[in-house]
Design a protein that fits this description.
- The protein is 36% helix and 25% strand.
- It has eleven helices and 13 strands.
- The longest helix is centred in the first third of the chain and has 18 residues.
- It is globular and about 55 Å long.
- The chain starts with a helix and ends with a strand.
């Protein structure tokens, strides 16, 4: 759903109020958080989408990793998962569904979460994902609202999954590239979250980068935190061939929608090449975490990410005083 339309719909909804509702939908956070005891809160989220790769098992893995990511972005630990399936039973055999669910189960097991069941409906278009419940300490929740002026922005996964999956659909990607982007999307954000939470409270805010692209999710973080951001386009971690494929027109429809969302509050250096701008707007499937970290902890965070195998992590910008939500993209 286009972000502007989604925002308008949410704005019209009544606000849920409860003394134990710690995070609702007002700040465009990745998940809701509800306190059970002084030391325990539940993190709850749901996400599902249409296939981004041809292999059903890999599709299940990617969709599960994507759904689990919201819990990791809040600093939580996944506990349980429920499958959410829309399945065209008149078009696809049951083995396809079995493979999708098997892929999702494998990644949930990797995350240490239990798949409790789920719900399936017949639909004209295949969709799969998960509703996930996790746990977090009520005093250690990461939201969009914690960034402070002077913080450094770290991105933990390379950009370009939307561009590359478009190339896959158009049969313009080779087998090696398909394996690489599949592996990237199916990789959990668990290690990145562990590196982040190990440095609490010097890591202050986080969001995962998904459908609204890096610029869209960065803007939400800036608005909620009441700050402005500067992003360094030259520092972005990028998947191989993504930039060149963007230059050849392997773009998603979501890029235009995302620019309509962020354009009014975003200044882009005139010299920035169009393919690099496309990467900033590219809708990501199971993207990385964008973390706001105190400058004194940047080296420790990067070291912790490296130690856990999150090798693409990079400093991509900083937090500044300014109009909330405004972003300056430097080339």
């Amino acid at each position: 759903m286009p972000p502007a339309a989604l925002g308008a719909a949410l704005h019209a909804l009544p606000r849920s109020t409860h003394p134990d509702l710690l995070v609702g939908f007002e700040g465009a956070d990745d998940a809701g958080v509800f306190r059970l005891t002084p030391d325990l809160a539940l993190v709850q989220t749901v996400d599902f989408f249409t296939p981004v790769v041809d292999d059903p098992f890999d599709y299940g893995r990617i969709a599960a990793a994507n759904a689990l990511s919201d819990v990791y972005a809040m600093g939580g630990i996944p506990l349980t998962c429920l499958n959410v399936v829309c399945f065209p039973a008149d078009k696809l055999p049951g083995e396809v569904l079995a493979q999708i669910l098997s892929g999702g189960h494998e990644v949930a097991h990797q995350a240490g979460a239990v798949v409790c069941g789920g719900h399936t409906v017949t639909d004209v278009e295949l969709k799969y994902g998960m509703a996930v419940t996790g746990r977090v300490h009520p005093d250690r929740i990461y939201t969009n609202a914690g960034a402070r002026s002077g913080d450094v922005l770290v991105l933990t996964k390379p950009l370009g999954t939307g561009i590359l999956t478009t190339a896959i659909k158009k049969r313009k990607a080779g087998e090696d590239l398909i394996r690489l982007v599949t592996s990237t999307m199916a990789t959990l954000n668990r290690d990145a979250s562990e590196a982040m939470t190990a440095l609490w409270p010097r890591t202050r805010a986080a969001t995962d980068v998904t459908g609204f692209g890096l610029l869209g999710h960065a803007m939400q973080l800036a608005r909620a935190s009441g700050v402005a951001l500067e992003l360094h386009a030259s520092a972005l971690p990028i998947l191989p061939e993504a930039e060149s494929l963007a230059g050849w027109g392997m773009l998603t429809r979501g890029e235009k929608v995302n620019w309509e969302y962020v354009g009014p509050t975003t200044e882009v250096d005139p010299g920035l090449p169009a393919p690099r701008r496309s990467l900033l707007l590219d809708p990501q499937t199971s993207g990385g975490l964008l973390i706001a970290v105190d400058p004194s902890a940047v080296d420790a965070l990067l070291a912790g990410l490296q130690e856990r195998g999150t090798l693409a992590a990079a400093v991509v910008g900083r937090v500044e005083d300014g109009e909330p939500g405004r972003i300056h993209v430097r080339s």
